[in-house]
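Just wondering, does anyone understand these tokens?
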Amino acid sequence: MADLNAIRAGLAVLLRTVTHDGSNQINVATEFPDQIVPPLIVLGPSLPNYHPNIGTTTGVDLLILIFLYVSRANVRNAQRQINDFLSTSGVGSMSIPNAIYTDVTLGGTVDSVQITDVRDEGRYTVGATDYIGVEIELECIKRD
């Protein structure tokens, strides 16, 4: 079975290569923080996604949610920033998908990782502060 701590650590390493404002490294939290310093990526909860009918191969798929929060000070700029973080072309090291796909095995921890969904873009309130955010769903596949 896949080691969840090793998966989260591998993802954090990849996501810390994402930059914003030209060269500043994005903040990455492996647990939900009490306060947010945007832009911030939070590795959220994971859920087992068992597939018993995949032939004779055994293993497990884990669904991991990643939350991206950006400042809401200017909503248009926040939308553009989220678009840049989610883009796979033209933004280089600002791309979350490009960072994840540089090592889809997370250093051999899993067999593959893929983004399966991006959803719920909108306003998120953490503490008493509003942010613009989005959820990114990752599927991590580990076969025994």
